[in-house]
Design goal:
Elements: E1 6-7, H1 18-25, H2 38-50, E2 55-59, H3 62-73, E3 79-83, H4 87-90, H5 95-100, E4 103-107, H6 116-122, E5 133-139, H7 152-164, E6 168-173, H8 176-183, H9 187-190, E7 196-200, E8 211-215, H10 217-229, H11 238-247, H12 254-271, E9 274-276, E10 284-288, H13 294-302, E11 305-306, E12 308-309, E13 314-318, H14 325-341
Parallel strand pairs: 1-11, 3-4, 3-5, 5-6, 6-7
Antiparallel strand pairs: 2-8, 7-8, 9-10, 10-13, 12-13
Length: 342
């Protein structure tokens, strides 16, 4: 890809900064499978502290973090309740069925969140004919809902209902810090009642790779076994954790991404595009197209702007630390040019 591309496909496309590369090169390392990598240990402790939990576990990817959590919370044949548009259902290749043998019960609801009453209505009483209800999985921010930041007054009742029903709660918090910044609420408050949370260090925060799963010490001890079984036990991976530690310093600057996304959406609407975002937007803008979205993606690429689709007639634009104001200007010029051509 050319160096002067404006890449709005995802916030996963960021490149490590020079400071981050130096930190990786100079990281103090050890064998993490033996628990001897000091940089990984610091990252796990810091992530757990930020989210108000006891312990953390560094893993290579957000998908592995979610799947390790599901494995650690369930036994084969258990039932997991999840929104039908959630990442762990929609984008993780059926991994919960493959690895955990879990039955996924799908619920619907506004902006990627079902209600407490909807959950209660779907949990069946104990019976030999029914699977054992065991886990609720939530997602904040919610990707397919346009990066929706879900506030405590919406999420807390669902978690409370889950615990009343003796279910555990996992939060896919790949972009949890985007939600915290958008809502002006500490991330730890957003997941106060969750039993486990996964955060992604390479979505918006700028690390090249890695996620952290947090929860109680007992839960993380169990999760560590499943990480090993899935091949996620790495050795001198402090070179990656060093990047993750720096990435956690990028939380406050997520507000800049949100402001650029807001400007992008307002300008696109002014051009006549069907651009939209959720009730509490973060770093994503969606565009509904009247026909197939791919031709618009191809035209944008011809103009030096990379964009992605989320369905046959939907485009997703994602702002991040490698797109500055000049990049937003260039993207808007491209969309203006495409509108003129149409």
């Amino acid at each position: 890809m050319a160096a002067d591309w404006v890449d709005l496909r995802s916030d996963t496309v960021t490149k490590p900064s020079p400071e981050m590369r130096r930190a990786m090169a100079e990281a103090e390392v050890g064998d993490d499978v033996y628990g001897e990598d000091p940089t990984i240990n610091r990252l796990e402790a810091e992530a757990a502290h930020l989210l108000g939990k006891e312990a953390g576990l560094f893993v290579p990817s957000g998908t592995m973090a979610n799947q390790v959590a599901i494995l650690a919370h369930t036994e084969r044949g258990d039932e997991m309740f999840i929104h039908q548009d959630s990442h762990a259902y929609y984008y993780e290749g059926g991994a919960a069925a493959l690895w955990a043998g879990a039955m996924l019960t799908l619920l619907d609801g506004a902006e990627g969140l079902f209600t407490a009453d909807a959950l209660r209505a779907r949990v069946r009483p104990a019976n030999i004919h029914h699977p054992r209800p065991r886990l609720v999985s939530l997602e904040n921010t919610h990707n397919r809902a346009g990066g929706a930041a879900l506030a405590p007054d919406r999420v807390d009742p669902v978690m409370a209902a889950a615990h009343e029903l003796e279910l555990s709660v996992h939060v896919d918090g790949a972009r949890l810090f985007n939600a915290a910044v958008a809502l002006g609420i500490p991330a730890a408050r957003l997941v106060r009642d969750a039993d486990s949370i996964s955060i992604c260090l390479s979505k918006g925060l700028g690390a090249p790779v890695g996620s952290v799963l947090v929860g109680s010490r007992t839960f993380i001890d169990r999760a560590r076994v499943y990480r090993k079984w899935l091949g996620g036990g790495m050795r001198q991976a402090g070179v990656l954790a060093a990047a993750g530690l720096l990435a956690l310093r990028n939380v406050d600057r997520l507000a800049e991404d949100h402001a650029r996304a807001e400007r992008l959406m307002a300008s696109l609407k002014g051009m006549g595009y069907q651009a939209w975002g959720p009730s509490v937007p973060t770093n994503m803008v969606m565009i509904e197209t009247s026909g197939p979205a791919q031709p618009l993606v191809d035209k944008a690429a011809d103009l030096g702007v990379r964009i992605g689709t989320m369905g046959a007639q939907r485009i997703r634009l994602v702002t991040h630390l490698d797109v500055d104001d000049a990049g937003i200007d260039r993207a808007l010029h491209a969309f203006e040019a495409m509108k003129v051509r149409d």
